[in-house]
Each structure stands twice: as structure tokens, then as C-alpha cells.
Amino acid sequence: xKTQRTKIKNLKADPIGEQLSKSDEMRPxxxxxxxxxxxxxxxxxxxxxxxxxxxxxxxxRVSNYLxxxxxxxxxxxxxxxxxxxxxxELLKIVNGCRLRLLQLVRLVDFLGKNLADxxxxxxx
Length: 124
Hints:
Elements: H1 15-21, H2 27-37, H3 43-50, H4 58-70, H5 75-84, H6 87-115
């Protein structure tokens, strides 16, 4: 993937992502990035993140939401919706799923590369 420079004002945020970024759960992470962007010491912000309980951690929440969204996925039930949705609605869902799939692949690749740095892989 080619990296391109762009002005912050030209970035378009995902509406759901923008809403989530303003949540209390993301505050420690946002504080870290604000300190980093201002060239300030990020040690305290990182310690705050490290002290969060597991269920408040970003990656745990992402994993939990994926479980919630996909745990009962089946194509037979989806087939019923496909029969009753308009082409416009279905295309919107397809495009959304493609985007989230690309994001998920990037996350899994990133996590896999970072897991390789651990001396003990642990057990899942």
C-alpha cells in the first residue's frame, strides 16, 4: 500500500469510528495521541492504558464486538434478508463488509507480526 501525505482537514472520519473515538473507553488512547502530537511525554498516558482492566482495552473490545457480530452468522438466515432487501441496501452492506474485512485483515496481520516478537506465544 502506498503512503500519501494529506492535510488533516481533508481526512474523512468513519462516522461510527468518530463516535467511538469520543467515548469514555477511548479517552486514555486519545490522551496518548494528543500528548504524542504535541511532542509531550507520553509515559503517563501509556501507564494509564497499561492500568486499564482487560475489558476496557481497545483490542479486547474489538475482539468482543467481533464475537457479538459474528457468533451466530449463517448464510441461510442472511439469504432471507437478501430476498427482501433492495439492490441499493444490499450493495451498501456488501461495501461495508468489504471495508471491515480489509480492516480486519490488517489488524490480524499486525497482531500476528507483533505476536512473533513474544518469546512465549501463550495459548488461546
